[in-house]
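ok so for the tutorial part 2 we go from a plain amino acid sequence to predicted structure tokens. step 1 is just haveing the sequence, like this:
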Amino acid sequence: MKSYSTITGPHWLSALRRFAVITFLGHLIWEAAHIPLYTIWVEGTWGEIIFAAVHCTGGDLLIAMSSILLALFFFGTGSWPQRRVYPVLGAMMVMGLGYTVFSEWLNIEVREAWAYREIMPVIPIIDAGLTPMLQWIFVPLAAYFGAVRHSSRKVDVPDA
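step 2 — the prediction. this is what the tokens look like for a chain of 160 residues:
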């Protein structure tokens, strides 16, 4: 008769894959939902609007993956996602939100690459749109916990 032991092995690759998929879907939905708050909604063609949503989602995915990989590099261990969940999360959130504030400022104030409509709620002092900031709180949190929650379950495997 085989004996079984309970392990929690570091399923980091599966967790990163889940994080990427949830991140992509979450940002795509968010971009589609808040694009009417930008001037492209009233000034752009449907092709430009669709391109902007897809382009921004791709950028969001790159930012999110860079943030989690840097957070793992500095704060993770080989046993992540079973260990060091919150230090990695905190670092990832700071990097993602920090880059978002910088990017909104750069692209609205300096490059004038995009603009808010008058209906976009703006956060005083930093003059950044509220919905991009909320996006970079809720989507990464959902993606991160969706990724690590599944990885923290114990798995029964036979002993060799």
